[in-house]
Structures are given as C-alpha cells and as structure tokens.
Amino acid sequence: MFVITVAMLVILAAASLVVTYVAYPQRGREVPRASWLGPAMTKAATRVGLDDPEQASERDRSSRS
Q1: Cβ proximity of 25 and 41 under 8 Å
Q2: Could you give the CA distance from residue 45 to residue 14 in angstroms, rounded to a whole number?
Q3: Model confidence over 32-64: pLDDT tens digits?
C-alpha cells in the first residue's frame, strides 16, 4: 500500500509540472507565486529538446499544406 501511495504522489507531481509548463512558460507567461519555476522549466525543456522553435515552425508549415 505504501508503494502505491508513493507512486501515485510521484505521478501527480509529474502531471502537475507538465500542466504548469503548458499553462505558463510555454505561452510566455510567468508562473504566479513561483517566479523561479518558469525559467527552470524553460531551461529544462530547452536541454531536453522540447523547446526548439525552428522545428515547431517547420512542423506547422508541413501540417498546413
């Protein structure tokens, strides 16, 4: 039971970070009450390769045609 509880807490924390990233830094807005979180998430997304504007614009152009 303890393992399930810990696993669910980890899953909820990861989901919360994803939702927060999509709602704020991805749109260019600052995270309320946690101004340090936005730059940290943007930096992590850039390192992982999730935040490459050049690839995103290429995907948008190819999906339109």
Answers
A1: yes
A2: 14
A3: 888 888 888 888 877 877 656 666 566 566 666
CA-based torsion, 16, 57, 48, 33: positive or negative: negative
CA torsion sign, 29 to 38 to 20 to 58? positive
pTM over 0.70: no
At which residue do the structure tokens 């995103």 appear?
56
Which is it for the CA torsion 39, 40, 46, 52, positive or negative?
Answer: negative
Q: At what angle do helices 2-23 and 37-48 cross, to 10 degrees?
A: 90
What's the token pair of residue 18? 């994803």
Largest distance between two CA atoms of the chain: 52
